[in-house]
């Protein structure tokens, strides 16, 4: 089915100047970039976005990293966008991605287990929450004609 997902280019990849390359890789893989907005997260908003990880050992580093510089918030549309974007990103940990999926976005553009270049929603429910978090006025369902 035609889906939208929330994709995010994280501060490591934006800071390295790789945001455009990552958006182009998405388009080359058949995704439509419905929206892309550069913004910076406060610590508070980064913590709210990643609330499900609150209390985990990596949470403080994650919040520091995600608020350390600009990100690009992206809405992607495609058939099976949620699963296909996660496949294009590769394994969460960039060091694992380099071993297991060397052409994936995290292998190419990430740094380590926390600084991993990109994020992608893991389910329809997450995609809806995450798209609303960054694009509160966006229509979520159905995907508009031409989007
Ligand atoms: P992301 O897919 O955005 O979801 C949670 C983020 O937490 C993850 O990418 C990484 O940036 C970060 N992270 C750091 N350590 C871990 C870990 N052990 N497991 C999962 N995510 C981690």
TrEMBL record:
Residues 2-142 form the Nucleoside diphosphate kinase-like domain. The chain holds residues 7 to 153 of 507 of the full protein. The active site is at 119 (pros-phosphohistidine intermediate). This is Flagellar radial spoke nucleoside diphosphate kinase. ATP binds at residues 10, 58, 86, 92, 106, 116. Belongs to the NDK family. Transmembrane segments: none annotated. It comes from the Eukaryota. It is found in: Cell projection, Cilium.
């Amino acid at each position: 089915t035609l889906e939208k997902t929330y994709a995010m280019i994280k501060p490591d990849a934006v800071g390295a100047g790789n945001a455009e390359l990552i958006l182009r890789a998405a388009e080359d893989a058949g995704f439509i970039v419905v929206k892309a907005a550069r913004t910076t997260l406060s610590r508070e908003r980064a913590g709210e976005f990643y609330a499900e990880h609150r209390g985990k050992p990596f949470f403080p580093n994650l919040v520091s990293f995600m608020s350390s510089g600009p990100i690009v918030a992206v809405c992607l549309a495609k058939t099976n966008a949620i699963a296909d974007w996660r496949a294009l990103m590769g394994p969460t940990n960039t060091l694992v991605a380099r071993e297991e999926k060397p052409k994936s976005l995290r292998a190419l553009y990430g740094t380590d287990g926390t600084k991993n270049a990109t994020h992608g929603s893991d389910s329809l429910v997450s995609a809806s929450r995450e798209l609303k978090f960054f694009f509160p006025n966006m229509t979520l369902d159905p995907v508009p004609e031409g989007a």
